[in-house]
Amino acid sequence: MGGTPLGPGSLLAGRFALDDLLDESEGARLWRATDRVLARSVAVHVLASSDARAEAVLTAARTSALVSDVRLLRVLDAAAENGVVYVVNEWGAGVSLDRLVADGPLAPRRAAWVAREVADAIATAHRHGVAHGRLLPENVMVTEAGSVKVIGFVVSSVLHSTPDFTHQRVTGGEPLDAFEADVVNLGALLYTGLVGRWPGTEGSVVAPAPAEHGRPLRPRQVRAGVPRPLDAICERVLNGDQHSQVVPLHSAHEVYAALSDYIGDGVAADAVDAPTVGRSASGASGASGAAGAAGAAASAGGDPDATTAIDHDDLFGEPAEPDTEETPTQDGTAPTDPDATQAGVPAFADDTSGMPAAPGGGRPLFADEGVTTTATGTGTPGPPAGPAPARAAGPAAEPDPGSDRGVGGSGDAGRPPEPEPAPWPEQDRSGGRPGGVRRGLRLAVVVCALLLVAVVVVVGLKLSGGRGGAPAAGGGSRGSSGPSPSAGPVRIADVSDFDPQGNPPRENPDLAPLAIDGHPSTSWHTSTYFDQFPKLKTGVGLLLDLGHPARVGGVRVRLEGRPTSLEVLAAPGAHQAPTTTRGLRTVATRKDAGTKVDLSLTKPVTTRWLVVWLTSLPRVSGGYEGTVSEVAVRS
């Protein structure tokens, strides 16, 4: 510093006390300091007034103040005094992108969201005629709150600029001006998040991207599983001018728009919250040596976007590469699904063998014992709800020796369980043919059987009551016509995400139907949270609509990852869907559950709406995330 006596404890502008030296490069120093007036941490760049960059640094600080965006760390003060020039910035706590990818790439959707947030901020700056000039991974930070901050705005470029203020790519090529460098580096930030390599301008500590003939290889050529749409965006930014078949992305706003098309609008919480580790502060410096613990990488594992079916290779006139993503089989299950059998049986096949097919495809998670399936095992949906023909006796009914029910002809195979006897047989449409006589006889037999059952029940109740025994099942309440029906599946009419404490209150609503589609290879998942519940919220989950009040005795849930803590909440007596947990009754709880959870209610409840409420989530790369692949309800 040219002999200037600055060290810990030195005071600038009468209020900024220097605390820790974070980085020193080419005569410029970065300090963590304390604003004694507002009692907060700040970042301070200091260099000697005699430095050739001194005046340019002050100009850059004033220029950066022209742009207002919450993702750009603001300049709080800039001045020259006592032989030094200093610039004071906001202090940010979080982990920079170079540290996030140190151990592996981000999940594709998360990488896209981070790049989109930066692109939106840079587009705002470019509209004001201001360029960042040094948009490296070290200058992009994900905070503890889960937001993106861009540091070193304008100032970092001046401190590390070349004499002619041009920028050179790590893969070579023509020099770029500051605005061109910003756009190229936006594509490079996405590239880095996807594969952990840097194809942008020089200066990053991230390893350079592999190149061929001066062009960075496409992300899908570097790492398997990169979604084609994101691969195409990188190519259009970094190598778009090399393709005559496509329109390159030449502005920050175009990059922002392309990424928004991929991940949708307003999905910040859906894409990423914050890194799991590396919480130490990182100053507004852009220096790779700034303080901050080494953050764990958010490696991409099982990202749902990895199987996006849009083929963008056609845009570039190149032969398509073999996909490395898993392709669902004809029965809808992924080849690697450990719970999928060759017959296409979904989750819980081990303890639901012999179940009839569910209306949504695949077998239900609950069914009465003894119900058999069709010989083909194809999972053909059963008949629609409603009275079914009685088949308890008659000339066409043949006993099934393998069934504990004692009856059930081959025509019953694949039918859903019938919790109550059907009082009405199917109508006789024989038009007087001999089959009508047979149906009449069967009807008479069924009526007699029902009368006999009713007599036995009445006698049993009287004997039980006269001997002081326990009341019959169902509590002996008034209006009961007999024992409670056997447990069977309860149809779920609709499902939606339930996030009353979210802002906005949405938690991947488009994925919610996948939790009841009968295929364990598809699932609904929460956002990725930086902190475990209940620090940010008490829970999040799925709202099940049964269509009408129904008796519920249990809920079975198929989860991914472990452990997960969850509750089942009910809304008995409610006339409309709940929008908050207030007033809901907790009817079942499970702590630290595995992947298959069967929650039996201590006492059955009659309700139309149920909530599967996740109160703690499994750890995943980048934080905590819950996944529900299937939900079923039984009576």
Would you kindly provide a written description of the structure presented here, covering whatever features stand out?
It contains ten helices and 21 strands. The longest helix has 33 residues, at 434-466. The relative contact order is 0.09. The strands form four sheets. Strands 1, 2, 3, 4, 5, 6, 7, 8 and 11 form a nine-stranded antiparallel sheet that branches. Strands 12, 13, 14, 15, 16, 17, 18 and 21 form an eight-stranded antiparallel sheet that branches. Strands 9-10 form a two-stranded antiparallel sheet. The chain is elongated and about 110 Å long. The protein has 635 residues and is α+β, with helices and mostly antiparallel strands.
Content-based structural category: alpha+beta
Shape: elongated
CATH-derived topology of the largest domain: Transferase(Phosphotransferase), domain 1
Mean pLDDT: 73
CATH architecture of the largest domain: Orthogonal Bundle
Give the distance, in angstroms, between the N- and C-terminal Cα atoms.
77 Å
Query: How many domains make up the 3D coordinates?
Result: 3
CATH class of the largest domain: Mainly Alpha
The total beta strand count reads: 21
Radius of gyration: 33 Å
Strand content: 15-25%
- Which runs of at least 5 residues are low in confidence (pLDDT < 50)? 266-437, 465-485
Number of continuous helical runs: 10
Q: Estimate the helix proportion, in percent.
A: 10-25%
The major beta sheet can be summarized as: 9 strands, antiparallel
For the record, what is the CATH homologous superfamily label of the largest domain? Transferase(Phosphotransferase) domain 1
